[in-house]
Amino acid sequence: MVKKQLIMEKALELFGKQGFNATSVQQITDDCGISKGAFYLSFKSKDELILALIDQFTEQSIADFDYIVKNTNKNQLLCEFYKTSYHYFRQHADFAKTLIKEAFAFNDEDLITKLRHFDKLLEKLILTMIERVYEETVTSSKYDLLYCIKSFMGMYNDLILFCNIELDMDTLIQSLVEKTNLIAENMTIPFMTEQHLKLLDYGMDEEITEKELINILKQKIAEIEGIEESIEKESLILLHQNLLESNLSPAIVKGLLENIRSQPNYAWIAYLLRNYYEL
Q1: How far apart are CA 140 and CA 133, in angstroms?
Q2: What pTM was computed for the model?
Q3: What is the DSSP string of 93-142?
Q4: In terms of C-beta density within 10 A (0-12 exposed, 13-18 middle, 19 or more buried), how is residue 145 classed?
Q5: 24 shares a domain with 58
Q6: Residues 59 and 21 sit within 8 Å (Cβ to Cβ)
Q7: Would the pLDDT of 148 be above 90?
Q8: Disulfide engineering: 138 pairs with which of 20, 66, 134, 223, CB 3.0-4.6 Å?
Q9: Which of 199, 228, 261 is where one domain is finished?
Q10: Residues 237 and 143 occupy one common structural domain
Q11: What percent of the chain has pLDDT over 70?
């Protein structure tokens, strides 16, 4: 395992159990079996590590949602979307609780910007889902429906994270799908418009360039230089070469992206490339 990823995995466990403030760099390095010097080769500070974990946490969820929205049969899409949302938060419940309780104590502009960016990406994916599921039947109400779905996700995630009771997840998801359908089919007084959303875009509509993608892939490949060969490593190298030479078919590119998309360290680049190639 790449040392940087090992540090992130151990820190994720410690932050989830103890919180950000109560966890020291020394504890993280002890758990990893490395020196402090090795830690600081990967991260300049504990705060930088926390931001990297938040990046991974949000990027992995966006990448998963994107894949589901674009690859799931529309009749099952709402169900799979809600299921993924709640499964992800249950899987990372301890870290998510720490993030909710302590993140804004940093008062870090970069963190606030990252979370806003995540929110806008999520909104775009929910809109795409709404358009796939309901097509033209919700043309005038899709922005209100977007806010309803986001509200459902937030409210029920709180129930999952902060209520110490066993939840029947199948019933919860079925209930949310029913609620969403009822709102979509019966809304008569829409309020939200596309203009409202544009006013809240925070200037984050910039598309990533080919040059930026090449640099991101180059950095990922550099991180795994020297480790044993793997299907993920080979896929990253081929994807990097394809950006430089465009010598692979869309089907092969899609297969290479499948090889890396489920790995937390590569999910974000898979998401970026999937959108770049419109796959």
Answers
A1: 15
A2: 0.81
A3: HHHHHHHHHHGGGG--HHHHHHHHHHHHHHHHHHHHHHHHHHGGGGTTTH
A4: buried
A5: no
A6: no
A7: yes
A8: 134
A9: 199
A10: no
A11: 93
